[in-house]
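Weekly sync notes, structure subgroup
Attendees: PM, AL, DS (notes)

Item 1: joint prediction request from the bench team. They want all two components modeled as one assembly rather than separately. Inputs as received:
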Amino acid sequence: MREFIPSAARFADLPARFPLFRGATLTGARIAYETVGKLSPRRDNAVLILTGLSPDAHAASHPADTRPGWWEAMVGPGKPVDTDRWYVICLNSLGSCKGSTGPASVDPATGRPYGPDFPELSMEDIADAAAHTVRALGIGRLACVIGTSMGGMSALSLLARHPGLARGHINVCGAAGALPFAIAIRSLQREAIRTDPDWNQGRYDDGAYPERGMFTARKLGMLTYRSAQEWDVRFGRTRITAQPREDDGPFGHEFQVESYLERHARRFTRRFDPNSYLCLSRCMDRFDLGESCGGGTDEALSRISLERALVIGVETDILFPLHQQEQIACGLSAGGTDVEFVPMDSAEGHDAFLIDTARFGPPVAKFLTAF
Amino acid sequence: MREFIPSAARFADLPARFPLFRGATLTGARIAYETVGKLSPRRDNAVLILTGLSPDAHAASHPADTRPGWWEAMVGPGKPVDTDRWYVICLNSLGSCKGSTGPASVDPATGRPYGPDFPELSMEDIADAAAHTVRALGIGRLACVIGTSMGGMSALSLLARHPGLARGHINVCGAAGALPFAIAIRSLQREAIRTDPDWNQGRYDDGAYPERGMFTARKLGMLTYRSAQEWDVRFGRTRITAQPREDDGPFGHEFQVESYLERHARRFTRRFDPNSYLCLSRCMDRFDLGESCGGGTDEALSRISLERALVIGVETDILFPLHQQEQIACGLSAGGTDVEFVPMDSAEGHDAFLIDTARFGPPVAKFLTAF
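Output from the run, pasted for the record:
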């Protein structure tokens, strides 16, 4: 079990005993974060970014770590999330393996990684840990919480559970709860990992590692992060021409789309802790803002108090389909928030927010400029 | 390796040496079929049904086998494909495991099942074997070829390779070629089987059987046979209440949609030969009518000579998306065929033709009545 911590990550300690939504308690946990930009003397220019399942806290390059971040095109001086004006905090989610406490972290009670003994985590815990971190940084009120993908879930949870912590919200390809198609996909991803004999009930190591399961999980993910339309144009029926092919066995790969999935999966399998993947994946399935807050999803959304919100979705997104962002927009609006809903016709599916930044940039810039 | 042959199946021998599209030769192969209805004295009322990947030749109940068939609601006396008028022939595809020669059949050269040594099969071979069977039944011209799903591919191949063999055609959720999203899904299904250690390069038996791989392949299939919209309504976020749950391990099943996939997968894994699955799955990926006939897909479709065609697709189908049926309709129409294109707004996705027969019945009945 390994953690993958960005070089410039800083850490905020959670309370010594941090109570979890489902009843357990985490001891001595911490949250990894990075900041870009400068906090204003009035401490009123902080923008929090909550990430999807796999990214770390390195959203953008900055002097302490000049590597491009996972949202480099969107965050930086003069960019849509303009760090000349905003003090941007990006968090690694609780339960992840990129610096925040998760299954790959050492359990202070045993001196060994938690592994499968990491307590049951919920989206509400990810939200609470983020809220605690913001306050630990001396910020009483955020200008804006931005949540992308899974981060769009944890952001809603944070807003519902910590009223007044943010004035504005940008929800990017998020959802107020998981629906059965996405649950089915994630269930199959988890099953691929859990049934890999090398998962060994969560007690793997670098030698005996559930590589095959992680591989399948990632490929299945890629199928839902992009869109059929994009692939029709990008790959069509083009064959693999390179010799030797990566998978040349009986019934082996033959088309470029297969080779593309293979390359992406190879890059991922050893760079994300499998138990952490299982843990965050299940958090998403279990997330239901309406169930968590009581009263149903629409009511829970309408009770969130914000000045303004921007909700963006993508027409070709099959994992977090557009009607889920529409629900967020309508629900927030019903509660009196001034909401702008932007459906994008990007071809890139769920991942469009990472790729089609030419289209995502302008509404985000406009929203933040008006603040 | 096992074959699963319906009790009333009859058999047509292919020529002693049957040449395959990719160069090999099959020796002593046969095709399993069933017929419902009565061939007219002028032999002009035959309707051929070509199936998807998994069905057998038992499309509908008849006196010799009264079990309901896989298209029971559509085929029978007074039904849309009315067996009071039509002599309906349903074939099991060459390469399958339900009576027609395939990897689970005995290789006459060795006296043992072909297994992984079954020669490379193509959609063109499935089509040629079907054409041969029709002629062996003494039918020079079919009134209509109906192809559903993969059968919509083999039907187009048959029409292109055997001009004049049919007057009419009904293409149901078919395609003139495989596109990258479907290729990626099937590639992942094959990978799940191939990487199951019990697949053993295709040399499994009932004891050491790639059950886990077949399981994953089937679940992945179910994800693409239905639609997110259907599941939102059908399952929503309902939990499994039955105790014990089928999969109660760590990160085990919790939602009804997971339990549904589990049940469907369990019913399938031991009832379809894995090598046969691999073989037919690859036939679909490789199928490209334009490449096969030369000149591109639209031209290949326009060269097909028919009197009339009905092309049906489903708006929620993500495996054989609607634009593929639209392409078939446009291509056939450009060649002078009188084409009716019917896009259905069924919620059931690709499988709608098996379920939403209330909607599929009327256009099929109308089309065949007018013949």
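Discussion: Chain A touches chain B through 51 residues (CB under 8 Å).
Action: AL to compare against the crosslinking data before next sync.
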